[in-house]
Amino acid sequence: MPSVAELGHVGLRCHDVSRQLAFYTEVLGLTVTDHDERLGIWFLSARPDTEHHELLLAEGRDAPVGIKLIQQVSFRCARFEDVLGFHRRFREHGVRLDMIVSHGNAVGVYFYDPEDNRCEVYWQTGFVARQPFVEHIDIETDPEELLDAIRVSVERHGATGFTEESYRAWTREQAMPADGATAKEVRQ
């Protein structure tokens, strides 16, 4: 049976490609590897020497900003210090943050791009934790103290997973269509 090796890239349609391009290159530091202005597409990569593109930006978004199209697009960082650096950079650039959490197996900073697509930068902790595991953290805590606290939390909840009530409420809210119908009513 054939198998997928890994997720290669994600493509986002945009209202304003130039604004999105500036965000993903200047704030996230991705590299434009190719583009075709006639077609309105730009290819970006965090690893241009090994992966031609991990993100494609394309003109032509016709859904209004605020419509729930994407749950999240996540970018893995090699070091915890990178996540800390992005958190500082997001604050400097006025990037709207969503949440800063431990997933037990990762530390993530969730944020919104200029067109309200929810994204995440994360670092894998090396700990094993059943998902979902969402515990809000103060990322400005001393890094060693923070990682010790995450280790203790994983020892306590890693086998079962963990979600704070605020996250469970947020998840239920996100599943609701804009008209207030329940997700089950919409599927029927």
TrEMBL record:
List the InterPro entries.
Glyas_Bleomycin-R_OHBP_Dase (IPR029068), Glyas_Fos-R_dOase_dom (IPR004360), GlyoxalaseI/FosfomycinResist (IPR050383), VOC_core (IPR037523)
Q: Which residues form a coiled coil?
A: none
Pfam families per the record? Glyoxalase (PF00903)
VOC domain boundaries: 6-124
| Protein name, entry field | VOC domain-containing protein
Give the species.
Streptomyces yatensis
